[in-house]
Amino acid sequence: MKKTALVAGAGGFIGGHLVKRLKKEGYWVRGVDLKHHEFSPTKADDFVIGDLRDAATCNKVMDRAFDEVYQLAADMGGAGFIFTGENDAAVLHNSATINLNMLEVAKNMNIKKIFYSSSACMYPKYNQEDPDNPKCSEDSAYPADPESEYGWEKLFSEHLYMSYNKNHGTSVRVARFHNIFGVEGTWIGGREKAPAALCRKVAEAKDGGTIEVWGDGKQTRSFLYVTECVEGVRRLMESDFMGPVNIGSDEMIAVNDLAKMIIKISGKNVRIKNIEGPTGIRGRNSDNRLIREKLGWAPSYSLKTGLEKTYPWVEARVKTSRLAIQTR
After folding, report:
1. Backbone phi, then psi, for 323, in 5-degree steps?
2. What integer pLDDT is reported at residue 327 of this predicted model?
């Protein structure tokens, strides 16, 4: 008999890739989201358009004892969405409500295993002030001091999942994602993250032109290609380890250097202009010691290789958008 899986957030970037992976492995998959996937038809056997903030929707989609549930649905975005402070109430309310609903129904339906996608944004900002030496080991989370309300919600929801395990025996898996990027991800509109935003800016720029980068460009991050993220999720779900565990790259890079890497891939001559803008913490890098210890694996896909796939995809979207405007 086929294994069954429910992917919440299946219309999103990571969720869409996860559905494809599960189908390749022979699962029967139901997806649920507020919208269909923007860039490709879903591979799910059944796709439900629904709002998981509504408990009735959660009951509707979780109508059987799924072998696995993947909870990726959240109100989220890049720095331009998360760090302005303008969306804090919605982020906290929407994401927390989804998790409260999903866990309660999972408990009632005796779901065998449920995955929760937390975020590196839950790490305390006092450990991420030095761009060259950030501390993001899993045991560094306390005393808690996330920089954004998005991070506080992720931390709360981690405790929620662990509490359902402790009090109700719900089998949970928790991973902290570090800046996932790749093809078929949001690239415009304000919710896109740094790799997609910079790919778009470079694709839009004329040869000899200039792109703007928020902050001084010395802030550091690591970026993980989406297929490696999905691999980590699947390995965690197949293991006996609950987490929380980092799923991210440990290839740290300054944002200006990220822009330079994309410019080189583009083949253009483009200059960088640093401007004021939301940047978040000064430094972040995935600490992969625990994932190696517990899963015998860690991401190894290089940033350059991932960008060589992502830039042409974003560039094609930019060209299509320009053509659509010209033919109006």
Report:
1. -65, -40
2. 57
